[in-house]
């Protein structure tokens, strides 16, 4: 089978590195010249560190270097196996017909994606999970396939139909229908900024339409309820259960960059996606109506408070990119939050009128007070360990423990044993830092099997 590499439908200025002016058969030796340039990463993908915002704790640099080495090995393995041909072969496992071209798509932090086009014009997405960017690749894929099937069956949120998944020479993959549409963030972002951020001059009509689309997604996720926190799976009888712990953004980052090995719930709990963001919501270009929501791998049954907290993505920026002074962040955030609340209340009212939502399922009342009560900050700190210190000392500590004059005011809450443990822990971490050695919990082969 000969699958060509296509250059069609790439974002303006974002083409796969060409090997010729025309589509080239991917099995051609010319494809060996394909540089490591998986958009949006620069050509030297390994040399570019993860985003280092001002609010995050220092990651273990040795663990990060090891993660980058694993990723480099994985990328080289992918390129050696002629990824366009591989994508075509995998698509044909699950979709009848003849694949003709395969094109590299803009990819996110955890996956490398190819769109495969068939002779009959049908288009499919083949997605590879990037080892080194994800810990527990197999678990991630199984979780995502399950949650996509659940969301498709039990909500009105449009989700790409999964056609199959499995193992290949570069690890786990998923084949699904290709979803047409443009990322919602494309209508909102400031194109003059390198870091994705909301355009301060975006028209209010576009912003409200975009927020309405996001509100519909959030309401759809907030309705299902589960008895436990964890990943959603379908059992042999066809029922949906929560049989295992979730794979979250925070867990992945800690395992990847902090070198931590794998080691009680009151419900009901609601579906929550750590990576829900206008970047992952595709819309048609005429009405900004959602055509599909993608990247579900970090979705799980979570504390309901996560769903009730103000959305962190209202300015499009990732929390790690917020200002050092969070008070300055709030100056920009609060006006957009008020706009979103107005839109959310309108969306809820329409759904209640249409009998698809009950009054008791509104999330806007609790969300409105989430900054005043501290719920927004507590939920964010629990999901973003790298920001915990900044958030805790500024927005959590004095709310629950009163004025803070000195750190000794808080040590009194610890037992003598806990104080000793803190001292021992700090001494151990300082010793590890001075030694500069990394304890490898897993080999590359073991990582592949996770």
Automatic annotation (TrEMBL):
Coiled coil: none
InterPro entries documented for this protein: AGP_Transferase, Aminoglycoside_PTrfase, Kinase-like_dom_sf
SUPFAM superfamilies: Protein kinase-like (PK-like)
Top-level taxon of origin: Eukaryota
Region entry Disordered, spans: 1-26
One Pfam family of this chain: APH
Record field: compositional bias (Basic and acidic residues): 1-12
Aminoglycoside phosphotransferase domain: residues covered: 104-307
Gene3D superfamilies recorded: Phosphorylase Kinase, domain 1
Annotated protein name in UniProt: Aminoglycoside phosphotransferase domain-containing protein
Organism: Penicillium oxalicum (strain 114-2 / CGMCC 5302)
Record lineage: Eukaryota, Fungi, Dikarya, Ascomycota, Pezizomycotina
